[in-house]
Design goal:
It is built from 15 helices and five strands. A hairpin with a 2-residue loop joins β3 and β4. α5 packs across α6.
């Protein structure tokens, strides 16, 4: 009797120990620790539901920039219906078209978010080919729309589509896919770097034919940045960068109107340039100077009243500086800095999870938005020569808003798949 009771007790103790051991194994299997920049990301069954979705803070920062952009586009374009250049247009013409572009962008972003990154990886080469064809089509007389001597748009009825924006999106996809496929060859220049340089050169020739040197610079930075982040040999990267800088310098030296832009940038208030190539920059600086620290008040800009050309597109920051002052400009800089940094972190997290393609794509989006915002702000503040680049997410422009939102939807998809993987689910 005593022996059977002891055996039963031993069996019960063994079952409890087995259950406890299995519970520990289940918990260990349910989490995947990932170290990024000295911080450990660890997902468990107790993780809040909000952590297992996409980055909501990133989404709200994007929404804040878009909403701020709507207000500033309306403010900057309020006097344009009186400008004979635009003919007879409604007072809310630019605001309504900008809001329509945002609606289309949100729909496109929702659809883009549903596409797995594995699908984007498969279609990346075809997307790049489609962007090349679009850049060719826009140069065909009678097909591409010419504005101020530049043939950059395709009229699609509801909006004018700019193929160079598609080329930015396609380039980051293609470069990320290319680097993942060529990882084993990253130490060999001719087999790793040269084909990518050739692809950028083809896009560059087509963009310079429009001409659109600003978009070419952004695409070059995207491609070079992904090459560097993908682990290309540093000496090869520096050599390629030097060649590209030399090529850009030659483009400026051999083009009289580009040289004139550089001289105007150096002295925009001179008698020679104040009414010529330095006109936009000089009035941008006047606008920002009027704003001082706190601005003249929302809607109170004088420069937007037919003095500053393209106030609602390339020089939107000048209107922000005039109406909201240094405080507004610094707030905008901080938001873009945070946005770029957070997207980079999402890319690093994907690479830490051994997801090279999604990681490089996310980092490519960070380079795209961060570099373009930097160039636009530098131009408006007189720190860089004038370039035809808009402020991402904020300036008026249908195709730019559309592709910006699609790119950010891809980033949110990368973050979503990262968190699924850390939870233990498959992607």
């Amino acid at each position: 009797m005593g022996r059977s009771t002891a055996d039963a007790s031993s069996a019960t103790l063994w079952q409890r120990l087995s259950g406890w051991s299995e519970g520990l194994r289940a918990k260990a299997a349910d989490r995947l620790p990932v170290r990024i920049g000295g911080m450990e990301y660890r997902q468990t069954s107790a993780t809040p539901a909000r952590v297992l979705g996409f980055d909501q803070t990133l989404l709200w920062v994007v929404v804040a920039l878009l909403a701020w952009g709507v207000v500033m586009v309306y403010s900057a374009s309020i006097a344009l219906p009186d400008n004979p250049r635009f003919g007879k247009i409604a007072p809310l013409h630019f605001l309504l078209r900008h809001v329509m572009a945002l609606v289309m962008g949100f729909v496109a972003a929702l659809l883009t978010f549903q596409v797995p990154m594995k699908t984007w990886e498969r279609v990346a080469p075809w997307l790049f080919i489609a962007s090349i064809l679009a850049l060719i089509v826009v140069l065909i007389p009678g097909v591409g729309t010419s504005v101020n001597g530049a043939r950059r748009w395709l009229s699609l009825g509801l909006m004018n589509f700019q193929p160079s924006e598609l080329a930015k999106f396609a380039m980051l996809m293609y470069a990320a896919d290319y680097m993942e496929r060529r990882m084993a060859l990253k130490e060999r220049f001719f087999r790793a770097v040269l084909p990518m340089v050739a692809a950028v050169a083809v896009v560059g020739v087509l963009l310079l034919a429009e001409p659109d040197m600003g978009a070419f610079m952004v695409i070059t930075v995207i491609a070079m940045g992904i090459l560097f982040l993908g682990g290309v040999n540093l000496r090869m990267f520096i050599l390629t960068a030097v060649v590209l800088v030399g090529a850009f310098a030659m483009m400026v030296m051999t083009s009289p109107w580009r040289r004139e832009r550089i001289f105007a940038y150096l002295d925009p208030f001179s008698e020679e340039h104040a009414l010529g190539k330095g006109y936009q920059l000089s009035h941008s600086l006047i606008a920002i100077g009027r704003g001082e620290v706190f601005g003249v008040g929302l809607g109170g800009s004088v420069e937007k009243l037919h003095w500053l050309p393209e106030a609602h597109t390339d020089f939107l920051l000048a209107v922000i500086g005039e109406e909201l002052g240094l405080v507004g400009v610094l707030t905008l800089i901080v938001l873009f800095w945070w946005l770029t940094r957070r997207i980079m972190q999402i890319g690093r997290q994907a690479i830490a999870l051994d997801r090279v393609f999604p990681g490089l794509v996310a980092q490519g989006v960070a380079l795209w938005l961060g570099f373009q915002a930097f160039i636009n702000m530098g131009v408006n503040l007189g720190a860089l020569p004038t370039k035809g680049l808009t402020l991402p997410l904020m300036s008026y422009g249908g195709s730019a808003i559309l592709l910006n939102l699609m790119a950010l939807a891809v980033v949110l998809r990368v973050d979503y798949e990262n968190k699924l993987l850390m939870k233990g689910a498959s992607v």
